[in-house]
Amino acid sequence: MAYIIVGLGNPGDEYKETRHNTGRMLVELFGKSLDAEWKLDKKLNATVAKVKVGKTPVTLVLPETFMNNSGKSVKPLVTSVKSAEKMMVIYDDLDLPFGVSKISFNKSSGGHRGLESIIKSIKTEKFARVRVGISPTTPSGKIKKPKGEDAVTKVILGKFKDEEIKELKKLSKGVNEALEVFVSDGLEKAMTGFN
């Protein structure tokens, strides 16, 4: 059974390079490292690429729904808890500072609407995720989490600055490695090497 890697974001040019599209951007970069050929899958309402890590088939999925409906694109691919355990979802996380990422498993959505939608659709939290920090920090590196819905919206829908895009590309190298380890050696090894 193929592994599934999902990059969360919003479709359309106006959301390109916004913080909320971090997951999508990182999966696109992972695809690029494997010469992925992307195609629109109308049934899934997602842009999909089939690649291989070693000899293992992997399906890369970028939902073309809005964030809070991401589960609709994932549900047809994940039909059991066993198949959920072969899925990794990459998304932006306001609880982590920008430039920091962590792999976790079997946790709640933490209020992330894209994740919430997936959990509801596949009826399990038993899947892996890469949480990628997008919160601004103080000069001393303390997290400055936005408070209130307007402030949160402003941060998550704000565009990355050029130097942040460079940072993200650097970060993607580590994420790519973690994804490859996840597929070839399993989640525990990926977590040990990455977190």
Structural class, judged by helices and strands? Answer: alpha/beta
The total number of structural domains is 1
Number of helices: 7
Order of helices and strands: EHEEEHHEEHEHHH
* Average pLDDT taken over every residue: 94
CATH architecture type = 3-Layer(aba) Sandwich
Large-scale geometry: globular
Regions with pLDDT < 50 over 5+ consecutive residues?
none
Q: What about the largest sheet?
A: 7 strands, mixed
Estimated helix fraction = 25-40%
- Rg for CA atoms: 16 Å
Number of strands: 7
Account of the protein in words:
The protein is of the alpha/beta class and 195 residues long. The chain has 7 helices and 7 strands, in the order E-H-E-E-E-H-H-E-E-H-E-H-H-H. A hairpin with a 4-residue loop joins strand 2 and strand 3. The mean pLDDT is 94.
Spell out the key features of this protein:
25% strand, alpha/beta, 195 residues, 7 helices, Rossmann fold, single chain, 7-stranded mixed β-sheet, globular, 7 strands, 36% helix
Secondary structure: elements and pairs:
Layout: E1 3-7, H1 22-33, E2 39-41, E3 46-53, E4 56-63, H2 71-74, H3 81-84, E5 87-97, E6 101-105, H4 113-122, E7 128-135, H5 149-156, H6 162-185, H7 187-194
Parallel strand pairs: 1-4, 1-5, 5-7
Antiparallel strand pairs: 2-3, 3-4, 6-7
